[in-house]
Amino acid sequence: MTHGSILESEVQLQVSARGKYDGQSSAASREPITSLNSTKTAFGVEPATRTYRLRLARYQTMAEEVVAFMREQRLKKDAKLNLLDIGSGKGRSMRYIEGFGVSGLITFFGIDKNLETLAGVYRSERWILKHCDVEARGIPFDTAMFDIVICEQVLEHLTNPGWVVEEIARVLRPGGLLIVGTPTYVPGLVLVRRYVVPLFRRLVRRNGNHLQVFTYWSLRELIGENGHFSVRRTKGVRIASGGPFSLLEDYYWWYKLNRILGRLMPWLCPEIQVVARRQAATVLRYCDPQTRLRSPGNTELRNTELRKPELDRRRNSRTLPATGVSIQ
């Protein structure tokens, strides 16, 4: 499917659950997300090359934040939380939350622009999935519908990340939890990444898919700039991984050291997570995603007046493509 057809189509995938979920993982459900010739399991969740593979640590820390938030909520009997995963991919958020035994208390919603990825999502029967480009269409769910929103490794791929943050504020209820993760660079290297790397790629005719370059400070500013969110904490999930350090990723002490250093010096980490709460009674700015402009690396929104009825029409429109995915 071409990029253009993705922008013109949106598929809702919803498969009814097969019986009551008991919170246990069957052997079949633990099939690897990617084909790996390894008997090791990262964080006890998925097959990987290392037991504490630090590039997967973001999902472990995300799951810990979700569990801590759920404990605060003191859910009543039979109550469930709605969780939206933007850029849900193969469903890693569920896999890692499942490891804490609380996934049965959550209704999982996912959005991704890659239809093939959605077709192979982990435990698809427990997801409500939508195939759409949120930057072009907005988030196709009702206002204040979600208790938790996860946006992991997505904003750096967008032309207008501020638009998506506005949409997240719309669909997340007051007091709801937001977890955002992106790659980040220290102030000196960010200039190299922003200007030198694109020049090199043009010279070798190789395109990159990272359109935004964030630092610790610029990502926090993006999340908190309009007053919709209160940033509670920002943490690095790894400070040295891969390459010569990869052998150390089989040792718990190395994982813990990275976590400690990530909390103490998040601005030095190659990726961070921002944990925030939705503020109550803030005024949402609606924007037409097709007319707003953004300069590279700039998080300031421009042309922020919205024709709201037109946006609602686009968000609610549906064109179902012919696919091999089961649709209800």
> What is the strand content?
15-25%
- Largest beta-sheet characterization: 8 strands, mixed
Number of helices: 10
Query: Strand sequence of the main sheet, in spatial order?
Result: 1-6-5-4-7-8-10-9
Number of strands: 10
Oligomer: single chain
Integer average pLDDT:
76
Looking at the structure, the CATH topology is Rossmann fold
Under the CATH scheme, which architecture would be assigned?
3-Layer(aba) Sandwich
CATH class: Alpha Beta
Going by CATH, what is the homologous superfamily?
Answer: Vaccinia Virus protein VP39
Rg, nearest Å: 20 Å
> What global shape is seen?
globular
Protein architecture, described:
The structure is a single chain. With about 325 residues, the protein is of the alpha/beta class. The chain has a single domain (about 5-15, about 35-315), classed as Rossmann fold (3-Layer(aba) Sandwich). The chain has helices at about 5, 55-75, 90-100, 115-120, 135, 160-170, 185-205, 215-225, 250-265, 310-315, and strands at about 10-15, 40, 45, 80-85, 105-110, 125-130, 145-150, 170-185, 230-240, 270-280. The strands form 2 sheets. Strands 1-6-5-4-7-8-10-9 form an 8-stranded mixed sheet, with helices on both faces. A two-stranded antiparallel ribbon has the order 2-3.
